[in-house]
Hints:
Layout: H1 3-18, E1 23-26, E2 35-41, H2 51-64, E3 74-77, H3 81-93, E4 97-102, H4 107-115, E5 119-123, H5 129-140, E6 143-144, H6 147-154, H7 163-170, E7 181-185, H8 190-201, E8 207-213, H9 218-224, E9 256-260, H10 262-276, H11 282-301, E10 305-311, H12 325-331, H13 336-343
Parallel strand pairs: 2-10, 3-4, 3-6, 4-5, 7-8, 7-10, 8-9
Antiparallel strand pairs: 1-2
Helix pairs in contact: 1-2, 2-3, 2-6, 3-4, 6-8, 10-11, 10-13
Amino acid sequence: MSDWVTKAIKTINADYQRSADTHLIKLEQLTLKGIDIYLKDESTHPTGSLKHRLARSLFLYALCNGKINQNTTVIEASSGSTAVSEAYFAKMIGVPFVAVMPRSTAQSKIALIEKYGGTCHFVECPTQMHCEAQRIAQQLNGYFMDQFLYAERATDWRGNNNIAESIFEQMKAEPHPIPHTVVMSAGTGGTSATIGRYIRYKGLPSKLMVVDPEHSVFFDSYRQRDSTLTASRGSRIEGIGRPKVEASFQHDVIDSMMRVPDAASIATMHWLNNTMGIKAGPSTGTNLWGALQVAASMIEKGESGSIVTLMCDSGERYSNTYYNADWVSSEIGPTEEYDEHLQKIKVA
């Protein structure tokens, strides 16, 4: 292993040592009898999202496998947050970075990628991203990071302060320390794979429910146990949902799945902001809608316990899109049905 690679690995590990763990927020305002809901706030990472963990793992995985040296251009197919985090680490170790993304990606994410020295290469449809990233990597003799392939294997799911271990450690002093259910959406499928494997490895009774937006094939793939399914368009909830079943999506570690209407995701995102002052991104809306449905089911069965889900990133990145009423009306449609449902939930 070259001196440069050794130094790059040390540099990334030093950044990890400087970063504190992310907060676990109890939604105290919710008055659900016998049930507590928690948000793991991943927006506090240096690059502002859950994907910071993934990008760090992917870079270390690639470096230790001899795929990146000081002359390597790194290419990724990403709708935004992964590309932001990978651009950060590429700049840290001094290699060029190209993000292949849909033209519709939020301008704030594009600006962050460019802030970290990355280059944005646009395609018209999310279904084109993977092939275009492969083409550019071949053209530049670079390395395609391929988060959708490597996400589930780049992270040590047994522990080492991964997100699953962090959640269960932080829950230890809570009234219901072992969550009844952990709710997670899937982009690559890597985080759900890590959580599901960790639950099994530790012999925990917690269940993993994965929520999926419209126009994503993960839900149907899980129900049909068919990994060949594809869709003709991409998800409207940025960062989650895929038009094909990615290699990192692991059916067998998931206990249940739920399809969440896109309008419900947006309504829940706004409800969280308006009732609790937590401004999160649209995938958090998907996650929290799922958590609220789990809570409703538990109440109906007379169960008590805790539910943990993730705040994947901050809503500040989506001021011109998901927090813009005209954009939501045009791109998502009416949310009133779900707004009314959420208003019935008791909030102190």
